[in-house]
Amino acid sequence: MRKTVIFVADSLDNAHKFQQVLSGLDVDVAAGSSVQFKKLLSQHPSYDLVIYEARADALATLSQVESVLLEDGSASLLVIVNEAQLPEFRLPVQVKSDFVVHGAGSEECAARIRQLLWPGNESTSTDFVTVDNMTINLATYQVTVGGEPLDFTYLEYALLAFLVTHPGRTYSRDALLRRVWGFDYYGGSRTVDVHVRRVRAKLGPELSQHLETVRGVGYLWSA
Questions:
Q1: pLDDT of the residue at 122
Q2: DSSP state at residue 93
Q3: Residue 199 in 3-state DSSP?
Q4: pTM of the predicted protein model
């Protein structure tokens, strides 16, 4: 069953890493900064997991986060904590929770998320997506064409994976910035065009035909 994740972080490095991790899982993601936390919860009341980055004085707010989760229902909590904070860190005990240390690998982060969302079911049959001779491994963030790996940057991979897993639907540039980049992005919609060109170039002429431009609207992946 598809789950909803609220991701709250103030650092771009965690935002980028977890966007990559979450794109490989069967989840919908609502992301924002710590000041947007309550707004995100109100906009997505049926959330299943909160991933919360504890930075500086944010440790003091974890009890408030726990209280909100208790009021709202049975959602779980994954805390991102700096190693230097571990001596004073206490994991909330009234809600189902876990933590990862800042800088933990993507595979560890994904495993802890899966355990909180789907306990006892660590694998998924939707890890692989195949289009023609291209295979995307959503669990390991790898793309191969004819068995040969393609070298994508994080955002190139995230853009391709998002469009391929939402085939036949047109997304505007602004929508792609929100869904793929994960946060409000101020670089302008031209950023999307640049990444689309790079993805097309790496896919080659045959596969790139699937990544269509819809004039005046945006982009779609055709089956």
A1: 47
A2: S
A3: helix
A4: 0.56
